[in-house]
Amino acid sequence: VGGVRNTCHGVELILGGHHNTIRVFLNELVQSVPATGRIEHMIEEPTDPIPGCESFSIATSISEETLEVVIPPDQATCADCLRELFDPANRRFGYALITCTVCGPRYSIIEKLPYDRERTAMRRFPLCEQCRAEYEAPNDRRFHAETIACAACGPNVHLISPSGTVAAADPILAAVDLLRVGRIVAIKGIGGYHLACDARNESAIGELRRRKRRPHKPFAIMVSDLELASQFCEVGEVEARLLRSVEAPIVLLKRREPMLPDMLAPDNNRLGIMLPYTPLQHLLARHFDALVMTSGNVTDEPIRYTEQGLRDLLGPIADFALTHPREIANPSDDPVVVVQSDESVLIRRARGYVPTPLSLDIGGTAILSVGADLKNTCAFALGPRVYSSPHIGDLEYPAAFRRHVEEIERFTKWFGLRPVAIACDMHPGYFSTQNAHKLARQWGAQLVEVQHHHAHVAACLAEHGLSEEIIGVAFDGTGYGTDGAIWGGEFLVASPGRFRRFGHLAYHSLPSGEQSIHEPWRALAAYLIEIFGSKRARSVFQAHVPAVGDIQEVISGLAGPIRPPRTSSMGRLFDAVGVLLGFPPEISFEAQNATAVESLCQGVPLPPYDIEMGATESLGPDDDRDCFEISLWGLFEGTLADIEAGCEREVIADRFHATVVETIVRGCRHVRERTGLARVALSGGCFANTVLVEGACSRLGGDGFEVLLRRHVPPNDGGIALGQLAVAGERLRAKG
Fold this sequence. Notes:
Distance between the termini: 47 Å
Shape: globular
Number of strands: 29
Oligomer: single chain
Largest sheet: 11 strands, mixed
CATH superfamily of the domain at 470-720: ATPase, nucleotide binding domain
CATH architecture of the domain at 470-720: 2-Layer Sandwich
Radius of gyration: 27 Å
Strand content: 15-25%
Helix content: 25-40%
CATH class of the domain at 470-720: Alpha Beta
Structural class: alpha/beta
CATH topology of the domain at 470-720: Nucleotidyltransferase, domain 5
C-alpha cells in the first residue's frame, strides 16, 4: 500500500507492507527502469504507518519553489507507437501526434514543473472518453502518459498557405504532393519548424537556399530508414546506433559517390542525415528517398516555433505549412553529432539531449553562465548539476539575443531563484558579456569574467570531472586574449581556477578586423605580406588568388598609422589556406573553407611542412616566462612550393593537416618538458575536424600523452558556458 507523486526534487514513493516485500519491490523497481529513464540516487527513510491506506495510488504532484529535479528531454517515437501508427486496425492509425509514456515531447511542452499534463501545452486538449480510460488503467501502456492524445480529442494536423487553411481530406498526403512538385513546406516538429523540400530536386534546393539566404551552408536531410542512409553515406556501427537512438540527432556521415545533388553540401565530403523522430515525420518520410529538413529560420537566427514565427516563414520562405495547435513552450533545434575515433561527439547540443543535466559539483552555489556570442548557449549550475540551454545561435542577430534572454528567464523561473554569481567571457564587446554586466547589477550578483580559451579547456576538465592542471590545446577562430590580441592557436597549462599561456601560433595582422573573417583573402594577404614581403605576396595573388579584392588595400593598411588587430588564430589559418587551395575568398558561414580543406583529405600519411618554434617577441600578462610561438613561414613556403609544382589539392590538404598535428605534438612536448604534465585536453572549434582530432590523438597517444576530448558538450563555442561555470565555481570556492 502507499502512493507515488512527482515533486520538484524528483519522485516521492511512500510504501507500506512487510519489510521483505518492500525490499523485493525496490529491487525490481531499480532493475525495470525503462530505456528512456534513469535513477540517479535513491534515499530511503522510515515513515509512520499510513492511516486508512488500503491500496496504492498516484497522488497529486507537489509544486515547490526551488528545483533539483531532472527535467525530461524530448524522445523519438518508440517502436510500439510506430506499430500502432501504421496498423489500420488501431484507433490511432495515421494519427500524426501519437505518443506514450516512453516517447514524444517532454521538455518542449513543459510550461511549469513538476511535469504533469495540466502544466504542459497538452492542458488545452481535454481527454476523450477512450483516452481517459487508458490514462487511468494501471495495465495500459499509456497509464498516466501526460501527452496522451488521439484524433478525437486532438490536437490534429492541418495544412495552411499564406492565404489561410487549405481544405484537404488528408493534409499529410496533400503536403506530400506539394513536396513532389518542388514546393517548400514548413513542418512543425517537436522543438520548432523545419523547412522541407525534395532532396533530389535541385530547383527546389536552390530556391530554398535563395529564400533562406543560405548560399553554401550544408542542408541536413531526413531519410525513412537506415537502409536508405547507408545508400547515400557510410554508416558504421556507432553512427547506426546514434541514428536509431531516442535522441535521434543529425549525424554527419561520409558521403558515397554522389547519389544526391552536390548542392546539398557544397565542398563537403559529409552529409548530415537524421531518421524521422516524430510520427508526422514518419508519415511523410515513407513517400520520399530523402527530404531536406533544415531549421525553420533565416540562416543563423534561432529556430521559429510560435504562430508568429510561422507567419515569418510562410510566404517569404515556405509555400505551405503542415502544422498543429500543440504549442511549443521551450524551443530547440536538432542536435548534430559526428563520430571521431569510434566515439560520438556533440557538435550542437539541443533537442533530445537538453535539458538532461551534466555533472559539475560547485557546492551549494547557484551560478549562471552566459556563454560566448557565437553558437551561444547559457547554463545554470545548481548543486551537483548543470542545466544547459539548447543551442541558441549567434547573438549579433537580435532574434538570437532575445532567445538568449528568454532562456535565462526560463532558468530563474523554473529554479525559483537568482544566481549569486554570473560568469561571462572577458570580451568587452560581446553581447553576452554586456548582458551579464547588466544582470549582475540588477541582481546584486558577483561577476566572473573568464578568458575564452581558458573556458574551452575548463569545459573539457569539467566533462571529465578533473580539477588538476593539464596541458590545454585550444584551437579556434577567435577569442579575446588577456593581452588584447585575438587568440585562437593556444597552448595553455590550466586548471579550473587558473591558467598560464605556454605557447601560441605567431601573431599576424587581421586587416579590416571582422571583415577578414568573412573575407579570408584579406587574412591570407596579411600572412603573405608579413612573411614574404609585398612583392612576393602580389605575385602569389596574381597567380593563385585571382578575381578578389585589391591586395594593395591590405598592403597600404598594414603600413598605415592605425595598426590592425593581431591574431594567433588557427581558424583564420585554415580559412587562408583554403583560399590558396581555390576555395572561396569570401565565405558565407563560419568554417566554410576549413570544412572544405578537411574534405579534401584522403588520409594518406605524408610529411608535414617545416615548423619553427621560438621565443615570443613580448610576453603578455598570462604568458609563461618561456612562452614559445610557432612560425608559419615553413608552412606557407611548403604549401606554395607544392602548388607551384602542380601537386594535387588533396596532397596539400593532407600535408597541411599533418603540419597542424605536428604543431600540436611539438607544442605539447615542449610543455611536458617544462612541467612534467602528460595529460592533454584538445578543445575549441577546430577540433570538430575529424581528420585533425584522429591524427592528433594517434600521435599524442603514441608519444605517451593521455588525450581528453569534449564529447558531451560541443568542442566549439557551444560548450563555453560549461567551462565558464567550472572556472567561476573554482574561483568562488577559493574565496571561501
